[in-house]
Design a protein that fits this description.
Elements: E1 5-8, H1 9-14, H2 16-33, E2 35-39, H3 45-59, H4 63-66, E3 77-79, E4 100-105, H5 113-119, H6 132-157, H7 165-168, E5 174-181, H8 184-187, E6 197-200, E7 206-210, E8 218-222, E9 226-229, E10 237-241, H9 243-248, E11 258-260, E12 272-279, E13 286-287, E14 303-304, H10 305-315
Parallel strand pairs: 1-2
Antiparallel strand pairs: 2-10, 3-4, 4-5, 5-12, 6-11, 7-10, 7-12, 8-9, 8-11, 13-14
Length: 319
């Protein structure tokens, strides 16, 4: 049995006894590994297929074309191979991750140029794939809805009288990465200790992942079982909490530690695309950790969301 629980958001939305059961399942599941699988989310699976199809058109373009949209880690555009090493977030020096990404984010500008340049920079869309912008806008709107539902559920799971994220995430920062994990014939044989994504935790509140199953796929770490392949259900989204939500929970819920394996010897030509939606809070939100008995650690100081996340983003940038 996996340590990762499967919960049904439609039962939560229905209220009553079923909703209370879901809340208890969420609390227990997040305490084990910081991960859950979520059914009943209401997102049409055909939408993810359309995003993948458009993204594959982009990733198939020559590097010389894609480089026109090149940005550093944290930017909006193409993040090419060799730019990111997520293992650095844990203080582990690893070779660069075996992936390329197309990244975009929230555009709800504040009017402060310094803030907007970091957190609300305009998205850049490749003219070579005109269908990408519209389908991604539709997809991220659905992810925002699911993320807000999840945060409301999480607040209820901790028996809080009100959902604090109604205010803390009224105009949130968020990022979506479309990650492409190419085959060995493109990236070459993995170096020792090299992954498609090195072991790490995410930085924000909630990460929502729509993934393709594969031999070189997602693994999740828990104290109970160590590393294990993440369970996959075609109709479920994979959800994990990030460092900011771990901190807010008073470390009741561990930030979900995970990695993506390199191409495997028995499946060297596997080619995968994952859709990852990283949700946060308002950039200037003051996150005050929950004290015991809900939280597990006392004396944690409040933090500003943007400073908390920026420190972690800087850590995974190669060079």
């Amino acid at each position: 049995m996996s340590v990762i629980a499967t919960v049904d958001l439609s039962r939560w939305r229905g209220g009553g006894v079923a909703a209370e059961e879901v809340a208890a399942e969420v609390d227990a599941g997040l305490q084990r590994a910081g991960f859950i699988l979520v059914r009943g989310h209401g997102v049409d699976p055909a939408l993810a297929r359309r995003v993948r199809a458009a993204a594959r058109e982009f990733f198939a373009l020559p590097d010389g074309v894609k480089s026109q949209y090149s940005v550093p880690v944290g930017g909006h555009g193409w993040i090419g191979p060799g730019a990111e090493a997520n293992g650095y977030a844990e203080g582990t020096e690893t070779p660069p991750d075996l992936k390329e990404s197309f990244s975009l984010g929230a555009e709800t500008a504040t009017g402060d140029p310094e803030v907007d340049a970091v957190w609300f920079a305009p998205n850049v869309w490749p003219g070579e794939v005109p269908s990408l912008a519209a389908v991604v806008a539709e997809y991220t709107a659905q992810m925002r809805r699911v993320a807000d539902d999840l945060l409301a559920l999480f607040a209820h799971a901790l028996r809080l009288p009100v959902n604090p994220f109604t205010e803390l995430a009224s105009t949130p920062t968020w990022t979506m990465n479309i990650n492409h994990y190419p085959p060995v014939s493109v990236v070459g044989a993995p170096e020792p200790g090299q992954f498609r994504i090195g072991p790490h935790t995410d930085f924000g509140t909630v990460t929502i992942l729509d993934r393709e199953p594969g031999a070189g796929g997602l693994q999740v770490y828990s104290e109970e079982t160590g590393w294990e392949d993440a369970p996959y259900e075609p109709d479920a989204l994979t959800v994990n909490i990030g460092d900011l939500l771990e901190y807010w929970s008073g470390r009741r819920w561990p930030s979900g530690r995970h990695r993506v394996l390199p191409p495997q010897p028995h499946a060297p030509e596997e080619d995968l695309v994952s859709l990852i939606y990283f949700y946060e809070t308002n950039h200037d939100a003051l996150i005050t950790p929950l004290a015991p008995p809900v939280g597990r650690v006392s004396g944690l100081a409040p933090v500003t969301a943007s400073a908390f996340i920026k420190e972690r983003l800087d850590a995974i940038t190669v060079g």
